[in-house]
Structures are given as C-alpha cells and as structure tokens.
Amino acid sequence: MTDETGPWLVVGLGNPGREYAGNRHNVGFMVADLLAGRVGARFGRHKRAVAEVAEGRLGFGGPKLVLAKPLTYMNLSGAPVAALAQFYKVPPGQVIAVHDELDIGYGQLRVKCGGGEGGHNGLRSMTKSLGTKEYVRVRFGIGRPPGRQDPADYVLSDFGAVERKELDFLVDRAADVVESVVVKGVEPTQNVYHAG
C-alpha cells in the first residue's frame, strides 16, 4: 500500500560513531548522506526519534524524501524507524531500507519488497517494530568474507583498498536506485538495475 502524495522514508542502516563510518555495515549511511546532498538537505537530530533526519524533495516539486540514519546501533534500528513512520504518516510500502547484503557479490544492487531478513539484524529489528515485512529493501552487495573470517567481524571492517576504488561510484548508483524506486516503482527499477 502506498500514498501517492505522502513522503517516502528512506532509512540508511548503519552504526553511529566515527569508528564505524567506513565499515561495510555502514553503506546505508553512505547512501543516505549522498541522497541528502542531492536534495540539498542537512541531517539534524529528530525530536521524536533516536535518529538523524534530513528532508527534501526529488527535483522541483517532486516526491518528498525523509532520509533517516538511526542512532541506536544496527540491531535496534527498528524503534526509530517505526517512530519516524508514525510521525510522518508513511505507510510501510513507502519505507525503503538501504543496507549491506552478504549474499550478493560486491557492487551488485538488488531491490525487493518484503521477504526475509537473511540474518540481517537491522532488517529483523525493522520488521519487528513496523509489524510487517512489506517494506522496500535496496540491497548493496558486499559479498561473503574471505576464508574463515567471521561474518560479524567482516561487516564491521572497512572496505578493502580494491573495493574502495569503486565505492563512490557504487554508492552513487545505489542512490540512483533509491530515486528510481520513489519515482518509477519497484518493478521498473528491478528491470533496469537487476540486468547489470
């Protein structure tokens, strides 16, 4: 269910704090920061939710975006997301979670609405707090850890030197995917971005 005139809540998932800023787990924050720059908005602390929020419009008179970075740490992201969805009256179908995805190769982007959480604690928390799985996910592939590295350590480590060469381009592309979902919808976006 969507509301044609209402805002979209775009949630970048990550962990607050400088020590986490370059982590694979924080790619959602990176995309949210880029989108804020695109719409000319600045993040500020929200009065009703433990999150930083930036508001703007896509293009002149375009759809309203509420960009959010929960400040509760990844595993507790759901409560601030639910509080913001209620505050801005955003239906679940217009909530977009941008997150890292172990099950997709580095640099691949996938979009879906609903489905499982694939062991991602940020998504699990969102599903619990929103009371539904029917929100949009923009999945940013980070690939599996090499050798026997623990996935928990892997997601909390910074992107490698080779990955960083492409990272800015990929974050930019992920922001394009978010904008496409808002303007065109999930299926048309899948048709364009899943081919590559």
Characterize the structure shown.
By secondary structure, the protein is an alpha/beta fold. It contains 6 helices and 7 strands; from the N terminus they run βαβββαββαβααα. The chain has helices at residues 27-38, 78-88, 121-130, 151-155, 161-184, 186-193, and strands at residues 8-12, 44-45, 51-57, 64-70, 95-101, 109-113, 136-141. The longest helix has 24 residues, at 161-184. The two termini are 28 Å apart. The mean pLDDT is 94. The active site is at residue 25. It catalyses: an N-acyl-L-alpha-aminoacyl-tRNA + H2O = an N-acyl-L-amino acid + a tRNA + H(+). The record marks 100 as: Stabilizes the basic form of H active site to accept a proton. This is Peptidyl-tRNA hydrolase. Its EC number is 3.1.1.29.
Reconstruct the topology from this structure.
Layout: E1 8-12, H1 27-38, E2 44-45, E3 51-57, E4 64-70, H2 78-88, E5 95-101, E6 109-113, H3 121-130, E7 136-141, H4 151-155, H5 161-184, H6 186-193
Parallel strand pairs: 1-4, 1-5, 5-7
Antiparallel strand pairs: 2-3, 3-4, 6-7
Helix pairs in contact: 1-5, 2-3, 5-6
β-strand percent reads: 15-25%
Instruction: Estimate the mean pLDDT confidence.
Output: 94
Distance between the termini: 28 Å
What is the oligomeric state here?
single chain
User: Biggest sheet: strands, sense, closure?
Assistant: 7 strands, mixed
The neighbouring-strand order within the major sheet is: 2-3-4-1-5-7-6
Write the H/E string, N to C: EHEEEHEEHEHHH
Number of strands: 7
SS element count, helices: 6
Anisotropy-based shape? globular
Measured as a percent range, the helix fraction is 25-40%
| Uncertain residue ranges | none
Structural class: alpha/beta
Radius of gyration: 15 Å
EC number: 3.1.1.29
Subunit structure: Monomer.
Binding site for tRNA: 20, 73, 75, 121
Catalytic activity: an N-acyl-L-alpha-aminoacyl-tRNA + H2O = an N-acyl-L-amino acid + a tRNA + H(+)
